[in-house]
Amino acid sequence: xxxxxxxxxxxxxxxxxxxxxxxxxxxxxxxxxxxxxxxxxxxxxxxxxxxxxxxxxxxxxxxxxxxxxxxxxxxxxxxxxxxxxxxxxxxxxxxxxxxxxxxxxxxxxxxxxxxxxxxxxxxxxxxxxxxxxxxxxxxxxxxxxxxxxxxxxxxxxxxxxxxxxxxxxxxxxxxxxxxxxxxxxxxxxxxxxxxxxxxxxxxxxxxxxxxxxxxxxxxxxxxxxxxxxxxxxxxxxxxxxxxxxxxxxxxxxxxxxxxxxxxxxxxxxxxxxxxxxxxxxxxxxxxxxxxxxxxxxxxxxxxxxxxxxxxxxxxxxxxxxxxxxxxxxxxxxxxxxxxxxxxxxxxxxxxxxxxxxxxxxxxxxxxxxxxxxxxxxxxxxxxxxxxxxxxxxxxxxxxxxxxxxxxxxxxxxxxxxxxxxxxxxxxxxxxxxxxxxxxxxxxxxxxxxxxxxxxxxxxxxxxxxxxxxxxxxxxxxxxxxxxxxxxxxxxxxxxxxxxxxxxxxxxxxxxxxxxxxxxxxxxxxxxxxxxxxxxxxxxxxxxxxxxxxxxxxxxxxxxxxxxxxxxxxxxxxxxxxxxxxxxxxxxxxxxxxxxxxxxxxxxxxxxxxxxxxxxxxxxxxxxxxxxxxxxxxxxxxxxxxxxxxxxxxxxxxxxxxxxxxxxxxxxxxxxxxxxxxxxxxxxxxxxxxxxxxxxxxxxxxxxxxxxxxxxxxxxxxxxxxxxxxxxxxxxxxxxxxxxxxxxxxxxxxxxxxxxxxxxxxxxxxxxxxxxxxxxxxxxxx
Length: 781
Known about the structure:
With 781 residues, the chain is of the alpha+beta class. It contains 26 helices and 23 strands.
């Protein structure tokens, strides 16, 4: 029951995740007809955000969508009598909630006139935010809420299970001006609902036609841009699907190994009941009646094992859900529902039939005359029953080897990932995020003065070595790319999709020191790189190699595009800094440029503080400095840089732990199965071993005899397992980093390890056989 409970519980837990994220429809009206619409660069195929003028044209020209809605992800400073708080939200077009078929539980959705420039500023809250910040006030509708220094009116409360876009806690109208948004300015996401009778292919074809039409009408901004239409559910789960299916295969293997183990136990039990079954047959029981009885017993055991597995799954599902990506947890609630219960019942019955059928068939076809004889209990280890036990053990070893190889590949991949140099020193760095509200910091000098004063105050705190700020942290999952021109080089063809670009970050002078990002050549920013001074820029090594492979970039100037046709002022490259992993440890390093904050004046920044002691202990002191400058400015995302680095490898770590745990469980079950078969074989052969000793066999001879029997089935299992591993591990290729799916070291070390463990498992019954007393063995029945 425990062996089956572990196998069934693991399967139930993983199936509950697959049911929630891959099988269960999203909790929206006609969710199967919802699609994600995005622009993409035709030349490279890279997906991009949507420009608002393009969205307006799509909505006006298409005939395939019942509704098309735009989303702009944003963060809001919420201020008021309570402590200031920074909350993730979204600005959405008026058709967003009707498209999803979701209405507020209190109040109303947005009106069309509110989704236009100059419309009423209104906001809809999530139920979680309403309960947490406002204590579920029943009269909340119509009250004012200050967002980014501007007053909004609360008009609705969403249902508790509404979490789209993921993790958003409030929604405001998009209310954009098509002229001010600008062609070529890509910052929106778009979702749509297909009309009845319209398939995905037809929608893709029409949107591609509209994209070509817009490219001809607006070549400066739309040249090289296309449109991609994908099912919304597929878009949201695209990154987790391979990992979930890999885990499902792993737990199925564990269940099969458990079934083989229990089948071997029942075979041994059936052998002990041979005379009982023979008497039943002699008294008139038919073979089908015997098989039915045996299957009833095995299914009863499996159902009890399924009950144990369900209890384990209830605990395991909660544990697994906490480790899943936030966007998946926001999409669905992981729970043991009717489908999961039906799956558990089905798998329990099937496993009972699978591991009970072989013993039932074996015991029901015994020879009555031989069995009922006095010596009928003395059975040889060979025969069909012995061969079946051997086949089951071979299967266990083969399946365990495949799981161990897969786990070994993931472990080696994870070890390689952790060895990657991120380009900075993560230890003893505290980070936090803040955004200055435009209502109170509308002037560039106000934003510049705030961050300068804040960083100066933080730098004077005891235990602080240096402090700086950046618009986007390394490994933070955010990126911003800007097209640029190089002085003296011909302009590229029109259309942003054709222009060269690089990652774009704004930093303060102390940022590189705080993060220990090395300066390779030139100089860093100083306080003199301020408004009115000549424009300057720093670039990373990859950018220097990409566009100045045989030149000195420090003598060059670049200019950022401010519109599809114009560039801004020329910026002198004054330094080259080390490469930093911004998009992820496994991602390629992109060309990156850094601009001085005193010339760019960004409102939203991440502050990085390098400390002498534990950085987490400095959080309260740093927040106090923020409140001293602006008590209404919320500070969010307070983390050490080591936590940021750990979060960046959280998913690979989860895969390693899960697959490694399943592989360890499979190894234990396989070794138990091998030990059980050899031990049972020794017991069955006790009389034979006594005869051998009486005829002169020595202890080493008996050891070799028993060990050879165990290692023979082990080697056969290893051979089959290696063949299966070569085929199946290719499915892991997309999850591996810097490791081949047929890595020679793993494919050598794992079989050797399994062979050594199997040798140890056979050594115990072999030693017991070698210590038999010949006279006792000869009298053994």
